[in-house]
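User: Hi! I have a protein structure encoded as tokens and I'd like to know what sequence might fold into it. I'm fairly new to this, so please keep things simple.
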């Protein structure tokens, strides 16, 4: 089987893997804040450090599931959307990795200490330590970018979806034999009178 023939399975697997990494990492500790007042360290989860992480990861999972059954035009649309999402999420995750800004820990510090405002938060924060989760998440976005490029390169040559996903009556096969309950239900789903 060639790369083009495996395009759909490679792309769907990449979407699902990167979305799962994003969802899992959103619940894990990304940043540990050392406090200047000698209080207990504050743990900042990925969903607080990067608020769009969980919803966009869920969207990537949904794209991956839908990608397995959509037609050619929607494959292209999904490929473009996934490319944009991977670039946006990759850039924001990389920025957080390189700078570990106070804005990423601000909401969690405010929730823990009750202090608000950038000056008050800066006085409380003695240091910010990164965990391995942002790096793993960045790898997930690289996987998503690669999978979306697979979609953009191979979407025209994927096999068509099965008849079970079609809703038009033009592809209905009429049988000369007896009609059972399942055939009647399928006829109703297509808008055809099963009592014909």
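Assistant: Happy to help. Inverse folding works backwards from shape to sequence: for each of the 196 positions I chose a residue that suits the local structure. Here it is:
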């Amino acid at each position: 089987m060639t790369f083009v023939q495996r395009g759909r399975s490679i792309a769907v697997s990449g979407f699902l893997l990167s979305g799962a990494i994003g969802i899992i990492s959103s619940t894990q500790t990304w940043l540990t804040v050392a406090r200047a007042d000698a209080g207990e360290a504050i743990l900042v989860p990925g969903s607080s450090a990067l608020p769009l992480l969980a919803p966009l990861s869920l969207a990537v999972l949904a794209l991956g599931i839908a990608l397995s059954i959509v037609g050619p035009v929607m494959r292209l649309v999904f490929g473009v959307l996934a490319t944009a999402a991977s670039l946006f999420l990759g850039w924001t995750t990389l920025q957080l990795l390189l700078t570990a800004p106070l804005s990423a820990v601000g909401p969690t510090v405010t929730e823990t200490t009750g202090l608000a405002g950038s000056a008050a938060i800066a006085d409380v924060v003695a240091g910010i330590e990164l965990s391995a989760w942002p790096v793993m998440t960045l790898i997930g976005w690289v996987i998503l970018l690669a999978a979306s490029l697979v979609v953009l390169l191979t979407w025209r040559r994927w096999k068509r979806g099965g008849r079970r996903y079609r809703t038009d009556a033009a592809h209905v096969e009429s049988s000369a034999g007896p009609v059972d309950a399942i055939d009647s239900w399928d006829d109703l789903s297509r808008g055809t009178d099963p009592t014909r």
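A useful reference point when you look it over: The longest strand covers residues 29-35. Feel free to ask if any position seems puzzling.
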